[in-house]
Write a structure and sequence with these properties.
With 378 residues, the protein is mainly β. The protein has a single domain, classed as TolB, C-terminal domain (Neuraminidase, 6 Propeller). The chain has 2 helices and 29 strands. It is globular, with a radius of gyration of 19 Å. The protein starts with 17 loop residues before the first helix and ends in a 9-residue tail after the last strand.
């Protein structure tokens, strides 16, 4: 999905002291207990001259006691990188061997890399096929979903690029969005459209409503045969996806409300049957949230599971008090939020102990340490 929100540096004049933010969050404790949250009046300043954050981090918000154990008292949200040239940061993936995070800037057709060793950021791949989601397989090879080519590709050790998916049922894919890898080697990916059907993030002019080449769906690439199987299309626009820690469930964000009036902003869940098919679709969590007495619903985009089965969902398109990351318990209850001054497009766990949540958000890369680890390798 694309973003047109101003960067955090554009909002420097709107910043306010850290204590005001803490007082505000404390004042809305009653609303949180009732399942509602009030929006912050202004966006937080992450610029070089911003005041320091007093612990505990006020923008890691506990909505349910179950989230308390995951909030570290002495870990701030850090903006690791920001550039006015970066247009829409997406697809973060952690490489444990190289100790780096890579992510996509879709409109600029590049991938960037942040080094854990010294925080250095450089261009990792140019061009990058207008890539969106990225991940690594169990052999350490990078998998990318490309909007520009409407393909899922794998980068090999020798530098060659293998096309894993491009055509289904005799027609082009719409624009693969995000991918995850099963331990058996199968690759599961979503194909909603979006950037693959627009000049801004792909190669085709956008004339208004995105008209997909075929029904938006979730697919599985068989590791042994290489065949592509459609596993579900009971969803308007499948976006980010992740497995449960035991790989017995598949969670998928539905952003279909962007083009289908009857769609609902939510995260859906299926049972994974025999490692190959999906069954029993149902709503896992609604993205609706009451803000200042008004029910609003934004989109969940990229999602990841931690080892306890909680789902960490990048979220946005509502505003301050909503945009950032929403954390849901295994039963679908929203238990926490990480508030950011930009729309968050995707997340992943990484770092040497995989206890650091990286968040690609519009024109910036953010991170925060949490008291849990990611359930999967990327």
């Amino acid at each position: 999905m694309k973003d047109s929100a101003p960067s955090s540096t554009d909002r420097k004049t709107e910043s306010r002291p850290d204590s005001s933010r803490r007082n505000f969050l404390a004042a809305m404790s009653g609303a949180l207990a009732a399942g509602a949250v009030a929006t912050t009046a202004v966006a937080r300043d992450y610029g070089p001259n911003a005041p320091p954050t007093r612990y505990p981090e006020p923008d890691v918000v506990v909505l349910d006691d179950r989230f308390k154990k995951y909030k570290l008292g002495n870990s701030p949200i850090q903006r690791l990188y920001h550039s006015p040239e970066m247009l829409w940061a997406e697809g973060p993936a952690w490489n444990g061997v190289g100790r780096y995070l890579l992510w996509s800037d879709i409109p600029r057709n590049i991938q960037l890399r942040w080094l854990e060793e010294d925080g250095h950021v450089s261009t990792f791949r140019n061009p990058a096929g207008h890539s969106n989601g990225n991940t690594f397989d169990f052999q350490g090879r990078q998998i990318s979903c490309q909007h520009g080519t409407r393909k899922v590709v794998r980068y090999e050790y020798n530098g060659e690029v293998t096309v894993l998916a491009e055509i289904f049922d005799g027609k082009s894919l719409n624009g693969p969005n995000d991918a995850v890898v099963h331990p058996n080697g199968d690759i599961w990916f979503t194909d909603p459209g979006y950037g693959g059907l627009m000049n801004y993030e792909g190669v085709r002019a956008n004339t208004g409503s995105v008209q997909p080449y075929q029904k938006e769906a979730i697919y599985r690439i068989d590791a042994k045969s290489g065949q592509i199987h459609k596993v579900a299309d009971q969803i308007h626009k499948p976006n980010g996806l992740c497995f449960s820690p035991d790989y017995k469930k598949l969670y998928v964000a539905d952003t279909g409300k962007s083009h289908y009036p009857d769609a609902v902003e939510d995260i859906k869940v299926w049972d994974v049957v025999g490692e190959k098919t999906l069954a029993n679709v149902k709503q896992f969590a609604s993205m609706a949230l009451t803000i200042n007495g008004v029910k609003k619903a934004g989109f969940a985009d990229g999602i990841r599971a931690d080892v306890d089965g909680n789902i960490w969902a990048s979220s946005g398109w509502v505003g301050d008090g909503y945009d950032g990351v929403h954390i849901f318990a295994p039963d679908g209850t929203r238990i926490g939020q990480i508030l950011l001054p930009e729309i968050c497009g995707n997340v992943c766990f990484g770092g040497s102990r995989r206890n650091r949540l990286f968040m690609t958000a519009s024109t910036s890369l953010y991170a925060v340490y949490v008291e849990t680890t990611g359930a999967h390798i990327s």
